[in-house]
Amino acid sequence: xxxxGNGAANGAAxxxxxxxxxxxxxxxxxxxxxGVPQIFQEQGQPxxxxxxxxxxxxxxTDVHEVVLSVTATCKVGDKTAYLAEVQQAxxxxxxxxxEASRDAILGSYCPNLLFPYVxxxxxxxxxNGGFPPLFLQPINFDALYxxxxxxxSEGAPAQPLNA
Length: 163
Fold this sequence. Notes:
This protein has a single domain, classed as SecB-like (Bacterial Protein-export protein SecB). Helix content is 36%, strand content 39%. The protein contains three helices and five strands. A hairpin with a 2-residue loop joins strand 3 (63-76) and strand 4 (79-95). The chain starts with a helix and ends with a strand.
């Protein structure tokens, strides 16, 4: 009987765990093309570097803002063709999870939900800037989060996510 009561308590605790996306919004957008129009005459293979970062801020009881920051820098030779920066944010209700699960949700699941919005904005910015579209490949935020946790456990300073 004690086991049945314990199982019911575990079921009730799991039933209380809730995750909901309350709002998605653009926090900041920037596009720079410092070498235009001369960069269009440059010969060479463009090189695109992508930098990722995210942060989570507690807004209230069980309500968090997660901001995914993405910077795409394209260079042709040593000249910058364009720089596109996007901060895509979301407000998430995260209740009833233990600390490790909550951190994993905020560090992996939430950025994963925000990434398609960032991908679309970056693609539009680049194409509207007169450049060929940039299609960002999917990113494994689970692996990036696991790497951050590993580094933290080893005492290494936090670093931005890079892809």
